[in-house]
User: Which sequence fits this backbone?
């Protein structure tokens, strides 16, 4: 059975630890205020080693699909209210755009 849960976010840059699938990760969300920029995600292991960095928060895709060699046991997906193709705005992250962990058995 596929399970989904939302990672609670706010419309401001932030770093916190989250345990997903029994593994603790540090998640950093930064906003790149440049043309073509937007929200990005960095994922570190519990020791602070970068696993992925600068992953754009886009809708309609598994954000981690491009890293199959890292063996993440889950997917990350951004979903926006109203318009499924809308990317998260600076203030909309966590209110009108949501990040979900998708785990499959």
Assistant:
């Amino acid at each position: 059975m596929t399970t989904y849960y939302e990672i609670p976010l706010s419309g401001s840059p932030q770093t916190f630890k989250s345990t997903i699938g029994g593994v603790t990760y540090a998640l950093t969300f930064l906003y790149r205020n440049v043309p073509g920029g937007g929200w990005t995600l960095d994922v570190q292991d519990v020791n602070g080693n970068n696993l992925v960095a600068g992953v754009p928060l886009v809708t309609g895709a598994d954000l981690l699909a491009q890293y199959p060699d890292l063996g993440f046991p889950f997917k990350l997906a951004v979903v926006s209210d109203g318009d499924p193709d809308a990317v998260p705005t600076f203030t909309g992250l966590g209110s009108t755009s949501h990040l979900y962990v998708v785990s499959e058995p």
User: Anything to note?
Assistant: The longest strand covers residues 23-32.
